[in-house]
Design a protein that fits this description.
Blueprint (H helix, E strand, L loop, with lengths): L3 E4 H30 L8 H25 L1 E4 L15 E6 L5 E7 L10 E3 L3 H6 L7 E6 L2 E11 L2
Parallel strand pairs: 1-2, 4-5
Antiparallel strand pairs: 3-4, 3-7, 6-7
Helix pairs in contact: 1-2
Length: 158
C-alpha cells in the first residue's frame, strides 16, 4: 500500500486517540458488557446491545487508526530547508488578488484536514496548485466558483 503523508502533529493526535481507545474506552465497554450480562436475558437487554455496538465501533476505529499509522510517512517540516518553497506541512499566507483578502492555510494529510482550523489536504485543489511554488509567485486556483488568483505572501515552516 502507498505511504500516506502525515505531519508530526497529525501522527501524535492519532497515537493519543489510539491510547485513549485501548487504555480507557475499550476496558470501560468490556466492563459494561460484563455488567449487562449479569442482568440475565441478553435478547431483551438494551444495555448489553448498546455496549456491544459501542465495542464494535471502538474496535473498528482502533483498526482504522492502526492501519493509518502503519501506512503513514511522517514528515517533520521543521527539519526541512527553509527556501520559501511550498511543500507538504508548511503554512502558507495567501493574498486573494481580486478581493485583497488574506488567508492562511497549513498543508496537511487528508486525515488532518480541517478548513475551520485552517488546515487543507495536500490533495485539495488549492494545495495542488501551491505545491512547488515560492513566495511572491502568483497562483491560479480552479474552484467551483471559478478561477481565483492568489499571491503567495509567505511560507512558514512550523
Amino acid at each position: 500500500m502507498n505511504k500516506v503523508p502525515m505531519t508530526v502533529h497529525g501522527e501524535q493526535a492519532l497515537r493519543q486517540e489510539l491510547d485513549q481507545l485501548k487504555g480507557v474506552e475499550r476496558p470501560q465497554v468490556i466492563a459494561a458488557i460484563a455488567e449487562a450480562r449479569e442482568h440475565g436475558d441478553l435478547k431483551e437487554n438494551a444495555e448489553y446491545h448498546a455496549a456491544r455496538e459501542q465495542q464494535g465501533f471502538i474496535e473498528g476505529r482502533i483498526q482504522e487508526i492502526e492501519g493509518k499509522l502503519s501506512n503513514a510517512q511522517v514528515i517533520d517540516v521543521a527539519k526541512m530547508p527553509k527556501n520559501g518553497k511550498v511543500i507538504f506541512g508548511v503554512t502558507v499566507e495567501l493574498l486573494n488578488l481580486e478581493t485583497d483578502e488574506e488567508v492562511s492555510y497549513r498543508i496537511v494529510g487528508e486525515d488532518e484536514a480541517s478548513i475551520k482550523d485552517g488546515k487543507i489536504s495536500v490533495t485539495s485543489p488549492i494545495a495542488r496548485a501551491l505545491i512547488g511554488k515560492s513566495e511572491g509567485d502568483v497562483v491560479n486556483v480552479r474552484t467551483p466558483g471559478g478561477d481565483v488568483e492568489y499571491e503567495i505572501s509567505s511560507v512558514e515552516h512550523l
